[in-house]
Amino acid sequence: MSEIVVGGPAALGLALGAQTTVMLPVFLLGSLSPLIMADVGIDAFGLGMGVGLFYAAAALGSALLAPLADRADAWKVTRYCLLAVAIAGLAIATLGSAAWIIFAGLLVSGLTNGVIQPATNVVVSRFVPAARQGLAFGIKQSSIPLATMLGGFAVPVIGVSLGWKWAYAIAALTALLVAALLPKRREGTRSSSSTKGRLLPWHMLILLAVMSGLGAASANSMAAFLAPSMVAGGHSAEIAGIVLALGSAVSISVRLGMGYAADRGAVPLLPSVAILFAGGAFAYVLLTLSTALPVFIVGSLLAFGMGWGWSGISVLAIVRANLGAAGSATGVTQVGVFSGAVLGPMSFGWLAVNAGYPAAWAMMGIMTFAAACCAVGSEYLVSRHLAAGAAQ
After folding, report:
1. pLDDT in tens, 197-209
2. 8 Å CB contact between 308 and 219
3. Which UniProt keywords apply (predicted)?
4. Which of 82, 337, 380, 381 is the most exposed, having the fewest neighbouring CB atoms within 10 Å of its CB?
């Protein structure tokens, strides 16, 4: 197979393909859960444990291994991650009749996901011109809704007709295909690769990680519990599914639109993140007020658009504040994202069972407002730090 010549569009396409492929194991677990649970014998608690294990492993991988993307060849790191995911997927497909095999495969996939996200951030920062990185990160950060969509399509197309193990086998082969397309030698890079690595002080990175974790906790909870919340409010599962689909489209549109605007200097980065978080907090408050369908629709679209539309522009802000150290910096912040993806849904579920959905939505509103405050604080600290550095 001939090697792809990596320019900006090709690098972005490969990064999006790699990041989406690594996310498939956990989203296939969710979409194919009725088939897997019946075949393997795990219950809803086991399903939640598998998802939590994936994100916990991702947090560990990001914390320990993300700096490799800066020090080593980011393409090589990405290729090794894809090969590991392919092995994990094939193990699940061939030996997945035992629950522990599935959990082991999710553990490996989670670890690689924690590494590949910073690695693909490095790829975009090096190969995509700075003037287009806003839109590029918006596209790349759409990998999660894209993986969700592919997982959904896998149910009728593969899972029901061929069996759920075939879906994992095809996902593994897809990982091998993407790995084969990656360039096998270092190439001249653009943008921040020519700049000496500049990493923000740890207290600023930790504040950004807390911001990202709070935002991810509320957004992942919203994506997981919006449908059952609507059903509990007296609406049909079909209506809930339509609202989820519309919300996902709005989220992607906001990510792309904000990235496009950032490339043209039309919006400040971290202040825009703060505004998006504030809008998300307002959306969650709406969901506490009424179970009427119009309120659910407006609240849900706002929650998806503003409460989950911050991802791309947030990564762009972190990359630009840490020139030449995108892997290390986003590795720290991704620890927050993955930790929030574990703790947020657990907290929401506990509150929903013990205090009701309105209380759970109220907690998500508080968390998202706290994320907005973290974004404001980060903007103040980072801008002062960069200004001081420029004055030296």
Report:
1. 678 999 999 999 9
2. yes
3. Membrane, Transmembrane, Transmembrane helix
4. 380
Whose CA is closest to 133, among 267, 310, 270, 316? Answer: 316
- 85 touches 172 (CB < 8 A): yes
- Among the three residues 171, 193, 215, which one is the final residue of a domain in this structure? 193
Expressed as residue numbers, the domain containing 41 is 8-193
Could you report the per-residue pLDDT of 133-160, keeping only the tens digit for each? 888 888 888 767 666 666 656 666 676 6
For residue 41, what are its two tokens? 């014998």
Give yes or no for a contact between 57 and 110, defined as CB atoms under 8 angstroms apart. yes
pLDDT tens-digit readout, 239-275: 877 787 788 888 889 999 999 999 998 889 999 999 9
pLDDT tens digit sequence for 267-323: 899 999 999 999 999 999 999 998 899 999 999 999 999 998 998 899 999 999 988
Neighbours of 180 (CB within 10 A): 13
Dihedrals phi, psi of 29, to nearest 5 degrees: -60, -40
Q: In whole angstroms, what is the distance from residue 221 CA to residue 217 CA?
A: 6
What is the pTM (predicted TM-score) of this model?
Answer: 0.80
Quote the tokens at residue 341. Answer: 């993806």
CATH of the domain at 172: 1.20.1250.20
Residue 207 sits at the vertex; the CA angle it makes with 202 and 210, to the nearest 5 degrees, is 125
| Of 237, 219, 229, nearest in space to 345 by CA | 219
The average confidence (pLDDT) of the chain is: 85
Interval 111-122: pLDDT, tens: 999 889 888 888
Domain boundary among 193, 222, 244: 193
**Domains contained in the chain, number:** 2
The answer on 140 and 230 residing in a single domain is no
8 Å CB contact between 19 and 143:
yes
Q: Report yes or no on 3 lying in a domain.
A: no
Summarize the chain as % helix, strand, coil (round to 5).
Answer: 85, 0, 15
Residue 195 per-residue DSSP state = S
